[in-house]
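Milestone M4 deliverable, item 7.
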Amino acid sequence: YAFIPSSGIGDAGVGAGEPNSMGGVDFYVTSANGAYVKDLAGASLTLKDIMDMFEDRFYEVCADNVGKTLLTDYWGYRKINSFYDPGVRLETIDNEVGLRVSVLRTPIGDVQVLYDPVVPKGKMYLLRTEQLSVVRLPDPPCNFPPSRLHIGMSGNTATGDFTEMYLYGVYGCKVKNPSTMGILTDYSTTS
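Output delivered:
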């Protein structure tokens, strides 16, 4: 699992109608590009919504080509766990309790379930990770030394379980064949 930006950050002076310098997954994985995109309009996320996305991609690109990584916000991860909670049998282990779904076994194959705090609330991505990458673009024709194009530390103190990082330079999100992917968006994060 690698860092894949969901949305871009525009350069200073870029107009509202112009694309960001790094469009991100949301910019490329769209229904216009053949991907499955469903806006749940504030409705509660259901297992059927997730399985419908898998099924739609199966019929569009076949099982071998469907994305096999489900990247979600924390609420989406909690909902996925709640779908399976009633049917789970736990072995008694001292000092451990709970449920964690990390793989969904589906008719299209095993789908890895990941959550990340950078995923916008109310969004879930079905990704084919081998077709996503963050790439450095050619050096810009301006006073921006190529030696300063890098990934680095922000200088801020690490807090919690992460250290703030930044991309400094001209980078882009490369997406191949977005029709193998999907997005569920705007689901309720309270029900």
